[in-house]
Amino acid sequence: APRVFSGIQPSGGLTLGNYLGAIKRFVSMQDEYPCVYCMVDLHAITVWQDPKDLVHNTRELAAGLIASGISPEKSILINQSQVPEHAQLGWVFNCVARMGWMQRMTQFKDKAGKNAQNASLGLFGYPALMAADILIYHATHVPVGEDQKQHLELTRDIAAKFNHDYGVDFFPLTEPVIEGAATRVMSLRDGSKKMSKSDPSDASRINMTDDADSIAKKIRKAKTDPDALPSEIDGLKDRPEARNLVNIYAALNDQTVEDVLAEVGGQQFGTFKPQLAELAVSKLSPISHEMARLMDDPAEIDRILAKGAAQAREITAPILSKTYEIMGMVR
Ligand code: AQP
């Protein structure tokens, strides 16, 4: 049976990249499929998190998803650590995944940087836990941004190796859902870098909690080239900053990039940027207001996550039991 799973790390505030790359798809998929959306706190701690920040960021992320249109009545909303089967299956997958597979993961290389010996073991093993997050629900579809493609291929490799090693057809081969005009939103300061919540420069990203003035200012100051916008998509080749702003516009307005260029082709950035800012504010400010309102009642958010965890465990507990049984663990 089809099921959707996806997760976001409570390792900082939500960015426009998370919203356009992932959350917008989360919202549209909940009318078609049963969905589980997860604040992956166990992933966040692969890099040190101040406990006070982690509590706040987890609640704010949940508020962000709800404010964006995810209904706790339709979808299951959880934080990962409240559903222990994620970590339990994660251990099993640590024993299925191969060191060589993990060493090829580009996100580990990017995040660990030059000092990989000093990275946590958890950061290295992250993709095996991510595979467990997905497969503990037998999820078939995973909406994500482009940067997660390699991890989803690894998830399929882990499922296939488990099925092969135990001679079963138990874990499904999951499909990534990488759709929309902005599957890879880039930094506003550097068109070759992904927009990221952990970038030291706040000007590089739009945060979901930014007010109208700072959104407008960040867009006005976004790096661009001096040329006018093209009217055809080919004209965005080798213009990463221009392409990024057009992609953001298209995704926010639910248009194709071609349609946007047909309208704005020939404009200078001095004309285009204020329109983009206005569009961004009109789409994001209702969400940030609703987030702030929800954050006034953190106990209610905690109740939603606790209820989600109870619903989730009805799915995850039997799948973990069956996994252990297949592997020969005495029950
Ligand atoms: N810039 C982006 N463009 C499109 N999609 C993006 N996503 C993240 N950044 C972009 C998608 O958002 C989902 C959640 O990501 P995450 O928080 O779990 O991890 P991440 O990819 O590591 O995100 P960040 O913002 O870059 O966090 P840090 O800075 O902590 O590493 C995923 O579906 C991701 O593809």
Can you put this structure into words, describing what you see?
- It is a single chain.
- The protein has 331 residues and is mainly α.
- The chain has two domains: 4-177 and 297-327, 3-Layer(aba) Sandwich (Rossmann fold); 202-292, Tyrosyl-Transfer RNA Synthetase (Orthogonal Bundle), CATH 1.10.240.
- The chain has helices spanning 16-29, 41-44, 51-67, 85-96, 99-103, 106-112, 121-135, 149-166, 212-220, 240-252, 257-264, 269-295, 298-327, and strands spanning 4-8, 35-39, 76-79, 141-143, 175-177.
- The strands form two sheets. It has a three-stranded parallel sheet with strand order 1-2-3. A two-stranded parallel sheet has the order 4-5.
- It is globular, with a radius of gyration of 21 Å.
- The chain starts with a strand and ends with a helix.
- Residues 8-9, 11-12, 15, 17-18, 21-22, 144-145, 147-148, 183-185, 194-198 line the site of adenosine-5'-tetraphosphate (AQP).
